[in-house]
Each structure stands twice: as structure tokens, then as C-alpha cells.
Design a protein that fits this description.
The chain is α+β, with helices and mostly antiparallel strands and about 180 residues long. The chain has one domain: Glutaredoxin (3-Layer(aba) Sandwich). It contains six helices and ten strands. The strands form two sheets. It has a seven-stranded mixed sheet with strand order 3-2-6-5-4-9-10, with helices on both faces. A three-stranded antiparallel sheet has the order 1-7-8, covered by helices on one side. Helix 3 runs parallel beside helix 6.
Length: about 180
Amino acid sequence: MRKLAFAAALALGLSVPASADLPEGAKAPLFSTQAALAGKEYGFNLRSALAKGPVVLYFYPKAFTKGCTLEANAFAEAMPEFKALGASVVGMSNDDIETLKRFSVEECRDAFAVGVASRKIIDAYDVALVRDGKDTGVTSRTSYVISQSGEIVMVHSDMDYRDHVRMTLQAVRNLTN
């Protein structure tokens, strides 16, 4: 059924992920990348982040665009709740590190990190955004919640930003109950 919906969306020229997202229960691909938090560049390593608690890894298409800005603002507002549950949040896009430094301050409000999604990371997480049958070079809007053991426990892929924070927060709560 999902393949039919995907084919229909492609036929209509809608933006859809290039392939199905990684399934719940899969092991999250480990990676390291450049990231920014509060305007400062650092090396993000997923294995190290998971050693501290669950990770919300959310992919977004482009920094400073309307939906991505609103989503970043919503994650920033929810950070006290994520932190209280022992979870970290990392936004991922293929923007360059200088753009992400600014985005981490202005829209993420110094509350969480944003990282560079290289082609290898985009492919590993199946989050390439396709429009009219062509890879756009940006990521889909896809959120993963990854347990401390490295298992993907929740996936939400929807270009509408509005449910990502609510759904990832609930998945993190479910991990801690």
C-alpha cells in the first residue's frame, strides 16, 4: 500500500522521500559530522550522543525556510521536556556549517544542535527528497527517535512540520515509562 501511495505522489509531481524511511526496529546507522550548537562548531558523533540517552534525529530540508524555521522554534520550546527525559535533539540538513552556526543561534535558540547531513548520511537514513522524479539535493522532513541501544523506535516522515515535536516527545516518553 505504501508503494502505491509513493507511486501516486510521484505521478502527481509531489515531493516525497526517495525511498521508504528506515523502519522501526532497525539499527540506526552511526555517523560523525560537523555540527553547531549556540553558534559554535563541534564534531557530533551519534554513538557518543546515544551513550548519554535517547536521541531525536530530525531531518529538515533547508535552514531559514518557513517550515524549517517553525519546526526549529517548536523543538527549541520543547527542549526542557526532552532534557527532563534525558533525550537530546539534533536537527540535520545539508546546509553548510556556517549557515548552521547562524541557524543554531537564531532559530534553534541555542537549545539544541544542528548537523551537516552529508550525502552518505542522507542515503543511510533514506531521507533524500525527490520532486518530479529527481533528487532535489535536500532532505525530506523525517524524524527518528533512537533508543540508547541504537534501535529506531519511532519514525515520522511528513513535510508538514507540525506533528514532529509532539510525536517525537511522545516516543521519548514511551521509552522512559
